[in-house]
């Protein structure tokens, strides 16, 4: 699904101060894998995740997603590729406070051309599947952290993407809730979803099939498929 070769990423410029955050990264992720990316602060793991999710660009190297050459795509083509192929889950949930759980989940479907009734039905089914049937009309402030993350996962899955990207998805949760969320990720993985997750917790990374370790902008261990 993902093929990255010789990728490098820097911030700043030679004229000011150039900060190289990724150095000659090469990485393959197969369809259906559950991969965790680990490394100390500043190792480049979140930058790599943003590039995989097509949220950031890079200066050198190649990135192919499902045989499409990502750097050559227009902004419109990238947006469409993300919309139908990638779901995002973040540590801070990124829910819109003024909207209900149902409306938050429905948001990514607004740009798909699907009629309103079908969009609402799909969003309701996603929330119900995650045990939130009785919370569809609740706003984020009326939900626990674990419930908010489930809403975020439902939103990420509403367009049935092939790839789920998660950046510290349990970072704001207690231990018991973190385990619940990771068990949910495992169920999604068993349904065939490819998952790429950044975490700083070994206990969370243990839920993945493979752990990629980074240091100083480089991959130091590609892990072993289990």
Give keywords.
226 residues, alpha/beta, Rossmann fold, 6-stranded mixed sheet, 4-stranded antiparallel sheet, 7 helices
SSE arrangement:
Blueprint: E1 2-11, E2 19-29, E3 34-38, H1 45-52, E4 60-65, E5 68-69, H2 75-85, E6 86-90, H3 101-106, H4 116-129, H5 145-157, E7 163-167, H6 175-190, E8 194-198, H7 202-205, E9 210-215, E10 218-221
Parallel strand pairs: 3-8, 3-9, 6-7, 7-8
Antiparallel strand pairs: 1-2, 1-4, 4-5, 9-10
Describe, in plain words, how this protein is organized in 3D:
The chain has 226 residues and is an alpha/beta fold. The chain has a single domain, classed as P-loop containing nucleotide triphosphate hydrolases (Rossmann fold, 3-Layer(aba) Sandwich), CATH 3.40.50.300. 32% of the residues lie in helices and 26% in strands. The chain has seven helices and ten strands. It has helices at residues 45-52, 75-85, 101-106, 116-129, 145-157, 175-190, 202-205; strands spanning 2-11, 19-29, 34-38, 60-65, 68-69, 86-90, 163-167, 194-198, 210-215, 218-221. The chain has a six-stranded mixed sheet. A hairpin with a 7-residue loop joins β1 (2-11) and β2 (19-29). It is globular. The model has no long low-confidence stretch (mean pLDDT 93).
């Amino acid at each position: 699904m993902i093929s990255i070769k010789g990728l490098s990423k820097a911030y700043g410029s030679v004229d000011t101060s150039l900060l190289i955050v990724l150095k000659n990264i090469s990485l393959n992720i197969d369809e259906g894998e559950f991969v965790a990316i680990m490394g100390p602060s500043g190792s480049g793991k979140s930058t790599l995740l943003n590039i995989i999710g097509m949220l950031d660009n890079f200066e050198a190297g190649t990135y192919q997603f499902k045989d499409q050459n990502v750097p050559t795509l227009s902004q419109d083509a990238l947006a469409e590729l993300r919309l139908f192929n990638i779901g995002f889950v973040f540590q801070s949930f990124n829910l819109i406070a003024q909207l209900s759980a149902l409306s938050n989940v429905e948001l990514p479907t607004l740009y798909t051309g699907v009629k309103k009734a079908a969009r609402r039905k799909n969003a309701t089914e996603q929330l119900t599947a995650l045990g939130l049937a009785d919370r569809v009309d609740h706003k984020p402030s009326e939900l626990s952290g674990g419930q908010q993350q489930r809403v975020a996962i439902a939103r990420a899955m509403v367009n049935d993407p092939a790839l789920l990207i998660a950046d510290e998805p349990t970072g704001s949760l207690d231990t018991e809730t973190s385990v619940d969320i990771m068990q949910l990720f495992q169920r999604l993985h068993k349904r065939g979803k490819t998952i790429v997750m950044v975490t700083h917790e070994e206990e969370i990374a243990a839920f993945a099939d493979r752990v990629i370790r980074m240091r100083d902008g480089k991959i130091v261990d590609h892990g072993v498929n289990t």
